[in-house]
Amino acid sequence: MKIKDIVNRDIVTLTNCDQEPIHIPGKIQPHGFLIGLTAEWKIDFCTDNISSFIDITHSQALGKTFETVFGSKAQEQIFGYINEEKIKDAFPLEIELNGKLFQISIHKSFDIYVLEAEPQFNKEKLADVYTQTIQFVTQMNNTRSLKDLCALVAQGTREITGYDRVMIYRFDEQYNGEVFAENCREDLEPFLGLHYPHTDIPVQARELYIKNLLRLIVDIDYDPVPIFTVDDQENKNLDLSLSILRSTSPIHVEYLKNMGVGATLTISLIHHDRLWGLIACHHYSKKNISPEIRLAAKLQGQFITSQIDIRQSNDENISARKSSEALEYLTALELPLVEDTLKTIVKTPQLLQICNAAGVAIVFRDKIYKNGLAPSDEQINTLITSINEAKINQLFSTNKLSDHFPQLEKCSNFTGIIYHPLGSSDCIIWSRPETISEINWGGDPEKSIIKDSTGLHPRNSFNIWKQIVKDQSSNWKQFEINTAAQYAHALHNNLMMIMLTEEEEKYRNQSEILRETNLELENINWISTHDLQEPLRKIQMIVSKMMSDLNGEPENPFSNSLERVSKSASRMRILLEDILKYTRIKNTKEKLEKTDLNLVLETTLDEMKEVIAENNAVIEFEELPSVHAIGFLMRQLFSNIIQNSLKYASPERVPAIKITASQEPVIIKDLFNVYCYWVRFSDNGIGFEQQYAESIFKVFTRLHPQQEYSGSGVGLALCKKIMQTVGGTIHAEGKPGKGTTITIYFPCDPEDSLL
C-alpha cells in the first residue's frame, strides 16, 4: 500500500494571497492528532504525530479499520457519540484509546468523519465556570448600550479564559476592523479604538470564521504536522474548515509573531448570517484551554450576538423617538393651503430634528426656502442640476457628496445630504457639514502586505498610524433616512393640495368673470336687438308713407332709393328677430319631455300654409316618432328647415319637400353609441357643395350673395343650437342643382329601445 502526505505546498504571492486555500492546508497543530474515517470505518487519513500520543505510527494505522487499531469498545463509543447530536457540539467525547485518555471532537467533512484527539485535560471546576457565567448574566442585564455590553464580555472572557488580552473586534461594511472593547493586563499597551484594514482578515478567512465559531492557536511557534493518506486517487485532500487543530496560514502566523503574540483564541460573532465581529484573545506565551473553558468562551460570544439588535435599538431609540416626535409635530400642523406656508414650515425647528440635520432647503417653483446651516442658493442650484443630469428621481442620501459629484468637492458646509424629489423640479434637501475625524490605525493600512527579497510577509510595524478623514459628514442612520422620506411624502401631498387649491381658486375667479361677462353680453344683446327694432319700425313707417306720397310720381328719383331703404330696414328687422330667437334658445331652462313630432309638423304646416301656397310647394310626409324634446323649439326647428328649403328652391322646378323618419330606434355608429330616432327633410332645391356641410350651421354664414337669396344667415345655426339643447345633432348633405337633405337625430332612453 502506498501512502502520501496532502500538505498544500502552493506558493502564496501578492497576486493570490487573498485566495490562499487555508481550508485545505494538509497540516495540523501538534497538540493533538487527527484521523479520517470512511463510512466503512477505514482509516483513510492520519497525522504524522499519532505516534507521539499512542504506540502506533501513521503508516501502521492507514488502510486499517478503526476497530483493528483501537478495539471494538472504542468504536462503539464513537458510533454512539456520532449519533448523539445533542451533546456532540457542546462537549468532546472522553475516551480511552490504547490505554490513554483523550477527548475527541468529531465532525464530518463530505464523506469522511474527522476525529481530532487531544490528551484529556485536568477536570475544570465546573461550579466555578457556572458561577462566573451566572454572575456575568446578572451584570449583563444591568448594561444598556452595546458598547457597555461588549466591555463586560471582554472582562468576563478574560476572567474565564485567563488570556492576557481580550478584544471585541467589530467590522464595518467593508470589513475594516475596530477594537470596540478591550480588557488586558495593566502592563500591556491598550489597542482600544485602533482600526485594522480589511486585508488583515482576508475573505477566505472570514468565510471560515462563519463556518467554525471557535479557533485556537496553542503555540505560535509550533511546527505543523503533515496529514498522510492512502495514495489511491489523484488530488486527494481533506477539508478542515470545521477543524479545531487545523494549521494556520504561514502569513497569519508571521503576522501574530510580529505582534509578539504567543497563543490566540478567536470566537466568531455572527449576526444576521454575517460576520459582525470577533472576540480575539491574545496570550504572550503558550496557552491551551479545556473544553469547558472553550464552551464558556463561546457562550460569551453568543451573549453579544443575541443582544446586538436589542442594544443597538436601545442606542438609537432615544434619537429615533425624537425624530418620530418631530415628524408627528410637523404632520399635525394645520396650516393654510397657500405657498407662503413654506416659510412657516422651513423655520420650524422640527424640520431639522426629524433627521438630525444641520440645514434644510425646500425648492418649490424655482424659489428656495431654507433654514439652518444650509447651502447657498448657487450651491443648491448646482446640486439640483447635477442630480438631474445623473437622472436621480428618487430618494438619495450620502455622507460624502464629492464621491458622487466631484464638482461639489469644495462645499464643506454640506458634504452630507438627504435629497428627496417633490415633483418635476421641486425637492427638499437636508444637509450636514463636513466632520473632520481622526482614525487611529494599528499600522499603515496601505502596507498590510510587504514584499522583500525573502518573499511575501505581513506588516511588521503596528505603531499607531493616524489618518485624517475630511470631505464627509457623519453617517445618516437608517431611521433618519426613513423619517425624512416619510415627511417628504407628506410635504409632497401638501404641495399638491396647495397647487390644486390655487387652480381651483383661479378657475373660480375665471368662472365668475366669465359669468358676469356673459350676463353683460346677454343684456347688451337683448337691449340692442330689442331696442333697435323700434327705430327700424319707425324708419319703415316713414319710408312707407313717403312711398305712398310718391305713388303719383313714378318717375321721381327718390322712389327707388326709398324702396332700397325699406328693404334694408326689413332685412335688419329679420336679423334682429333671429338673434333674439338664438338668445332665447341658448338660455332656455325647460326640461325635455315626450313630444309627438306629428303634432309639431301639423302645427308648423298650418302656420306656414300661406308661404307654402305662395311657392306652390309640395310637401310629403310620413308617420313621425315621439321623442324627448321641447315643443316650441321643435316647431321653430321644423319651420326653419322648411323655410330654408323654400328659400333655396330651384327656379327650374316646383319645390318639393319629402319628410321621412325611422319608425323604430336604431344605432347610428358614427354618431351615438345608444339607440336614436332620425327625421329627414329632403328637397329638390339648388343644393350645395358637400365641403360646406359643416359651415352652413355657423352663425351668419352665407353661401350666396344677399342680392340672390334673402335671409340673415342665422336659420340653420338656430337649428343646430336647438338640437344641441335637446341632446341631439343635425347633419346636411347637398348635391349642387339636385337638392339638400337635412337629417336630425334624437337619442332615446334605453326603455324606448326595447319597445
What does this molecule look like?
Helices cover 38% and strands 23% of the residues. The chain has 755 residues and is an alpha+beta fold. Strands 1, 2, 3, 4, 5, 6, 7 and 12 form an eight-stranded antiparallel sheet that branches. A six-stranded antiparallel sheet has the order 10-9-8-14-13-11. Strands 25, 27, 28, 29, 30 and 31 form a six-stranded mixed sheet that branches. The longest helix has 72 residues, at 478-549. The chain is built from 19 helices and 31 strands. Helix 5 packs parallel to helix 9 (291-332). It starts with a strand and ends with a helix. The radius of gyration is 51 Å and the shape is elongated. Residues 442-447 and 453-459 have low confidence and may be disordered. Among the domains are: 3-119, 2-Layer Sandwich (Beta-Lactamase), CATH 3.30.450; 126-222 and 233-317, 2-Layer Sandwich (Beta-Lactamase); 589-753, Heat Shock Protein 90. It catalyses: ATP + protein L-histidine = ADP + protein N-phospho-L-histidine. Its EC number is 2.7.13.3. GO terms for molecular function: ATP binding. InterPro entries: GAF, GAF-like_dom_sf, HATPase_C_sf, HATPase_dom, His_kinase_dom, HisK_dim/P_dom, HisK_dim/P_sf, PAS-like_dom_sf. Residues 527-750 form the Histidine kinase domain.
